[in-house]
Amino acid sequence: MKRKKGNADRLTAGAWWSRNRWSCVILAAALVLFIVVRMAAVTFEQPQPRGDEYAEYETGVVTDILSDNTEADTVADGGYRGEQLLLAQVRSGQYKGETMQVYNYVGPLYGQPLKVGQRAVLLISTYRDGSHTATVYEYDRAVGLAVTVGLFLLATVAVGGKVGAKSLVALAVTLVCLFWILIPLLMKGASTLLTVFLVCAYITVVTMVILGGVCRKTVCAALGTVAGTALALLFGLLSQSLLRIDGLRLTDVEPLLQLRQTGTPLGLRGLLVAGVVISALGAVMDVAMSISSALTEVHTVAPDRDGRALFRSGMNIGRDMVGTMTNTLILAFLGSGLSFIIYLYSLGLDPRQLISSPYMATEVISGIASSIGVILAVPLTALITSFILVKDKKPKAPCGSKPEDKKLPKEVQ
């Protein structure tokens, strides 16, 4: 019996490898590529020694309130103003365990009153003579962030099961690529648009393989996503040229301009369209996978449909998605700038003044170019999927299905 069980285990492992070998090969190649690019993206420098005077950010806990003159300001919608003198015990760094007097400066736009027992991030300044002082930098949000992220992970796995867990892995890959590959490459002077597009294509391939393995459905979805993202990039460049505006007119580009003046060869002009491509990637990927998955199911049930019929089915499915997805993208961009929109509305600007403002131009490019990527991903994915599926008249089980699911229902047969 033990021998039979061992043979069954080996057969199961062999079957798993047979179904997933290409996924493993592609993910292994992607990992090697990631390591190579990461090594090229980062310039290893020796850590610079600290000078005679330096500042550190450490955690601390409020143990006592010595004075407090903070009060709510009705003009600032109940925001607090004033300052506190606190006793705080340092919980990290070279001064761990020491109790210090710290000032907490509070205003409507920064800081908040603290209570005994609350944690805060302390800015500790050390001087040449060895003395040191501390002020409250901000409320310590590490625990709150951990709880929020934990609830998100729990909900994703609880509702999505294995697919939800895979989506979290794909999300982690996306974040690592953005922060460990894209930004370091841009900081070293790599071409902004080309680098962003290649990183997005890499994220697309790895994400699709993680979620669905290597099969026709994921191949079609990946190709549709890359094509839709490329068109969003091209339309963004066209809109940028027509409106005569680029990344130099972004509202938060001034610190980056100062960074260039210190010698960092960061390309600023392409940042506007680069942001469009990154923001559109998730929506385009969603649309492409939905259409590819739906057409694969249609082909599995009705393998006699020709490519034209499959394309029409994909377009019918995609039209229902375009309206809501486009609305989602536009509202996302408007929602991110809601406070500034309210400010502009309060000024009572002339329509011509508003239309010609850089803010309006950048928002139009961001919202519409992203939507164009989603809209054009529909026919592109439908065309690619129908072309690939009609080559094989024999229906195959969708990705991730069990062998016994390959049989069609009797009424279809």
Automatic annotation (TrEMBL):
Annotated stretches, region: Disordered: 394-413
Assigned keywords, A-Z: Membrane, Transmembrane, Transmembrane helix
Lipid biosynthesis listed as a keyword: no
Domain of life: Bacteria
UniProt keyword rRNA-binding, yes or no: no
Biased composition (Basic and acidic residues): 402-413
Residue ranges crossing the lipid bilayer per the database entry: 142-161, 168-187, 193-212, 219-238, 266-285, 322-345, 365-390
InterPro entries linked: YibE_F
Protein's UniProt name: YibE/F family protein
Organism encoding this protein: Vescimonas coprocola
